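Running co-folding for zinc ion.
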Amino acid sequence: MRGLWLEGGRLTFRDDLPRPKPGPGEALLRVRLAGICATDLEMVKGYYPFTGVLGHEFVADVVSAPEAPAWEGRRVVGEINVTCGACAQCLAGRPTHCERRTVLGILGRDGVFAEYTTLPLANLHPAPAGVPDEVAVFTEPLAAALEVQQQVHIRPTDKVLVVGAGRLGQLVAWSLSLTGADVAAVVRHDRQVALLRPYRVTPLREQQVPRWSMDVVVEATGSPAGLALAKDAVHPRGVVVLKSTYAGQARVDLSRWVVDEVQMVGSRCGPFAPALRHWAATRLDPRPLIDAIYPLAEGVAAFAHAAQSGVFKVLLRP
Ligand SMILES: [Zn+2]
Ligand SMILES: [Zn+2]
């Protein structure tokens, strides 16, 4: 089959990859549409050691599901952590923290930038009828955005700031606006402002952010400067949610966090079901984030496009 292969920090298009075979409890999926995200770009830079097919954001058709044929022919999205169900974290109800997990296109498991992929049936969610592929492909990042609300009680009276209005920051700000809270986002350019407008999220330039004013700040830049801005914006005893990973080691003046009694919450993968409900109810529409759709054979060019500054989402259509 055709796919994008990462090896030794080099991404190549190949047409000689073996079609994967579903293991016990798994389904074979034919990828309809896949999204390139910051994690994929970091992996090409060598941020994680990985050899194989990249990609974890997708919508696909179930080609075969030997143990549950009722799934065959269904259009699905899928959770990316494949868990053991038996370790202490799984048994304690924290499956995304499974000690023996593999992660689609990230850790120990080939991903979705290919014609076919496999996932356990337990990871699959039917894509609701009427939700286009171009929307459903954003389910994994919207679920990650919703994890903020899963972890932190957002009151409708809260003032909330999202630092960073890029790919993920937009989905975080839009979904937070649905809580009724007073949501603002730090912007750098006009397209970010336009994307926030339908959701009534207040755009703020960095120098306009009022100090010590926010109940909750979500840091979605992954940069030490973004983290410092988040700390300046949150009020004492407020909450800062870290929604991005930091390449290398970020320098932080932690004593201010202690003195001001600020809570720091790490945040990663989130719940798919509410993300799908938002799509089905058309409360959110991610399609304005799409900059381009490339065929797999032009995947290397698609990655170069996705890495340009100011680009939101580049999709691959196998
Ligand atoms: Zn991602
Ligand atoms: Zn486990």
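Result summary
The first helix runs from residue 38 to 44.
The chain has two domains: 3-138+286-317, 142-266.
Job closed.
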